[in-house]
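Quarterly update from the structural biology core.
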Amino acid sequence: MSIRKSLFSSIIAFFCNMVLAYVAYGLCRVAFVLENGKTYADSWADNSLADLLKGALVFDTSALLYTNMLYVVLMLFPLHWKERDGWQTMAKWVFVVVNGLCVVMNLADAVYFQYTGRRTTVTVFSEFGNEQNLGGIVGVELLNHWYLVLAGVLIIAMLWVLYVRPKGRPKTHPLWAYYLLHLVVFVAYVPLSVFGMRGGATTAVRPITISNANQYVNKPVEAAIVLNTPFSLIRTINKKVFEEPSYFSDPAELAQVYTPVHVPCDSLTLRRKNVVVLIVESFGREYIGAYNETLEGGNYRGYTPFVDSLYQDCLSFDYTFCNGRKSIDGMPSILSSIPMFVEPFFLTPASLNDVSGLARELGNSGYYSAFFHGAENGSMGFQAFARTTGFKDYFGRTEYKEDPRFDGDADFDGMWAIWDEPFLQFFALKMSEFKEPFVSAVFTASSHHPYVIPDKYKEQFPEEGGQTIHKCIRYTDMSLRRFFETARRQPWFENTIFVFTSDHTNQTCHKEYQTDLGFFGAPILFFDPSGEMPRGRRHAVAQQIDIMPSVLSWLGYDRPYVAFGCDLFTTPDEETWAVQYVGGEVYQYVKGDYVLQIDGDRVKAVYNYKDDWFLTHNLIGTVPEQDQMERELKAIIQQYMHRMNNNELKP
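Predicted structure, tokenized:
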């Protein structure tokens, strides 16, 4: 038998099409960088273009080899029937559909990155698994980012039009020659493909993961430039989230450096005060004028006149941070003192652990507890976590609709939840039905994508400041003012401690909030209407995970508990600290004048953030505090991983 076709035809076509796929990934990367231009405005001066391109090639190669495995078989497997037109048509469809989906993933992540600060991982499917409004959200984003839709259509059309099909030649070859050549090529391709997937050819090279992107960039946020979304999804499938390091072999030494177990002191002042925690969606520190006296040459006013006025009567701190970048990171951090390390706590097996929290601990002292969120009950896993962390009752959209004092679904924003203004009124009035003392928390929603406000306020709060969220911040600020007006008339108000924070940051305008630290800039305020709690601004660091131990300390709680943050009321200002997982297995630790970043086992950078907020001068190896900060950060990480894996979130 013989074959009337070039021996090299399908081989040449395969490699031409793989080059075409590389071009598609490259175009998606250009779109990603342009869409997030503000984040990467200074990256080109700080990084080697050759390193960025090399990193992109490594990760694109791995992703393309993973996703095109079926196409490889269709084109290179030694089988002469694959030269037929029907087979080649099938191969073309497989190539275009698979790589077209990868194009869609990469372009979609260009938008989603703005909310997470990193490439999307497989946990995104769990994060939004219970949402009923994803179709509407996607539809809004398609309209808002029509240019990315157009880019996607053009790139996929390019894959189709420029696809190379094997071409026959008027020459006949014996089948044995065909099979010998294709067998050799296929056998040679297999190990090369494995090397490409792993990111190296030697046995000393471990398969590359997301963290390997950091070797090609100077800052963790820049790792997303060299990564691609298909790779991030593939490499996090069935990946163990919490891998315990062995920084410290002696448990006693580890506990001496850092322990999350809080043991109350002998002398306590018992205060039977109510606790109200306000978690305000996307209400980043950048939007609050009182925090930004020097921004824009001292002329910045922000978008929160009420919170600015409240700030004057609160306890505040110079440097305040959230411990994650998503809404589902905020609840564990604020209410259970569990920061986000690697993946959102909600979405990990550790969420089934015995979890403590503000509500559960105060429940031990006879407090009633309730959590409020105006979305559909069950949305974002909030209701499940509220129960996990000890809240006795949950009030959501369902309970709001059942209250005859309000207008039910007429107050629904059409996408996520009940508008903030009416729901915060519901929150204030409902607490008057609770037996004191109580602890309650509310998670607002109106300053959430797609950034709309009620029609009746569109003239009062027009678009301004260059970001669509700004009008929503003004609306929510007004809603908070009306909440406090109502709360002041309630019998429980004077005997209540209010804690105000945001779940995470969001759309930013200023470079000061587009750094590895700025991305985590969130307000943290303590307000005691009775005046018993100190007021004013302390020259200290504060973070969301400090809220639980600080509140328990102020109330005189007398039992041991686990909390990863520190007690701000007993910790000296110079000893306060903050920790964040930046992404790509990079953690950063803020203490004193410095922020330290580690990548796995090694220190990646040290900056004096007070003098160098933009983190441009890496002081690694020159700062006396570096060694101790490294020990403390590694102890925090090891304690976290050990306790997550061994169900030790209670003492």
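The chain is about 40% helix and 15% strand.
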